[in-house]
Structure formats: C-alpha cells, structure tokens
Amino acid sequence: MDSLGTWPRPVPADDRDFDVQVMRRLRTAPGAAGAPDRPSLGERLGTSLLLVVPVLTALAVVLLWQQWSRSGSALFLALIAVVLVATALWWTARLKRAFTTAQGRLGARLANVVEHGVAVVREITLEPVAEDAETAGNTADAAESTAGDAATSGGRVRARLELSVTSVRGDRFSTSVEALYDADAALLLEAGSHGPVRFLRDDPEGTTVIDTRLSEEQVAQIYRGAALN
Fold first, then answer.
1. How far apart are CA 37 and CA 26, in angstroms?
2. What are phi and psi of 215, to 5 degrees?
3. Within a 10 A sphere around the Cβ of 222, how many other Cβ atoms?
4. Which residues 6+ apart lie within 8 Å of 174 measured at CB?
5. Could you tell me where the beta strands, DSSP code E, fall in the chain?
6. Contact residues for 122 (Cβ-Cβ < 8 A; gap 6+)
7. What is the distance in angstroms between the CA of the first residue and the CA of the last residue of the chain?
8. How many C-alpha atoms does 22 have within 13 Å on its Cβ side?
9. DSSP track, the chain
10. Which residues contact 156 (CB under 8 A, 6 or more apart)?
11. pLDDT in tens, 43-56
C-alpha cells in the first residue's frame, strides 16, 4: 500500500446503527487505566451549577429591575449589566470545562470500544440501485460492466466488498461490507484498492463499516498504526 485511501469515497452512509451499537458498548466499557470511572462530586456539582446559576441570575435581574423602576437610579442598571456579564463569562468558561472533561472521559472509553484499521479489497460485487436491478457476478469484468451501465444512466451502485482488514491494534481478519457509490466512482473500485474502516473491538467481523468521517491526517495515522501492528 503505497498511497492513502486509494479506494473511491462512498456516498456518506447513515451510521446511526453503528452509533447505537457504540453507545450500548460505552455503558459497560471501562475507562483508560488510572482514569476515574465516574464523575467526581465536584464535577457533578459544577455541572448542576450550569443550570442553577442562570436561574439565580434571572431572579437577581428581575429584582434589580424592580428596584430601578421604583427609584430610577442608574446604579441598578449598572448592577444588572455587571450581573449579566459576570454570569455570561462564568457560564461560558464552566461550559467549556465541562465539555473538555466529557470529551476526555468519552475518548478514554471509546479507545476500548471502537477500533480502526486499513481494509484491502479482495473481491467485489456491484449492482445498480434500481427496482429492476439484477445482481452482478463476482468477477472484475462483471463488476466493471455493471458500474459502466449505471454510469451511463447516471445512477448509483451498491458495492459489496470482501475485505481483509489490518487493525491498528489487534489481529487481522476478513469481513464484508456494503457501501453506496456514485456510478462514476464505482468504476474506480478494483481488487487491491484499500482505505480506512472502523469496527467494534468485541465484534470486528460483524460491525465493520467504511469510515467516511476522517480527515486526511486521521487517515494517515490509521495507516501508520496498521503498518506498525
């Protein structure tokens, strides 16, 4: 493999099923070694304040507004401005801290649930996406003919790819995936082309999907990791 992501990019798939499986695994997945399994009391209290402080601020603003309406003193308007600015600054900083903490905790768990790897195409089956589509054979000639017919009609092609996957961490395995391609892109599919995939660690053969969410830098990291494994 002398280049990155040589297979054509599929039409982005609806990955909700994969995401649901990930969420189910996350409920029982352990965190990274040494990382706390649950938020501390201080973290839970800080998160609760994200809801409590705006309510208290709104109450304070109402009271100050009533005082201003009675007295007409500009001091109460100044106090209202100070309260709103101080609350906004505190709330924004606290929200960023909560998101950072949550991302770190989620990342520690995802590392024990979702794996990535580099998949090499061993066999291809293509069929046009149409009501009267007929399943093509498994040979390269039949696949090219099917994609060519679809390209002529400007349609899309469903590809079933038999893959050999080298994981970033773990053993190599074989599996098959289905992906939807624009017909012109499907013409570029061939045995030996390769690209990034992701799967669940506890069921790699049954959960592998082509990863369409990665940046070029992330793809390069996966290739390097797979090469070192």
1. 12
2. -80, 170
3. 24
4. 122, 162, 163, 164, 165, 205
5. 114-128, 156-167, 173-182, 194-200, 209-210
6. 162, 163, 164, 174, 191
7. 15
8. 18
9. --SS--SPPPPPP--HHHHHHHHHHHTT---STTS-SS--HHHHHHHHHHHHHHHHHHHHHHHHHHHHHHH--HHHHHHHHHHHHHHHHHHHHHHHHHHHHHHHHHHHHHTTTEEEEEEEEEEEEEEESSTT-----SSHHHHHHHHHHHHHTT-EEEEEEEEEEEESSS--EEEEEEEEEEHHHHTT--TT-EEEEEEETT-HHHH-EE--S--HHHHHHHHHHHHH-
10. 11, 128, 129, 150, 180, 181, 182, 183
11. 788 788 889 999 99
Q: Is 214 helix (H, G, I), strand (E, B) or coil?
A: coil
What does the chain come to in residues? 229
Structure tokens of 48?
């609760």
How far is Cα 148 from Cα 106, in angstroms, rounded to an integer?
A: 44
Give the tokens for residue 124: 């291809």
64-103: per-residue pLDDT in tens? Answer: 999 999 888 889 899 999 999 999 999 999 999 888 888 8
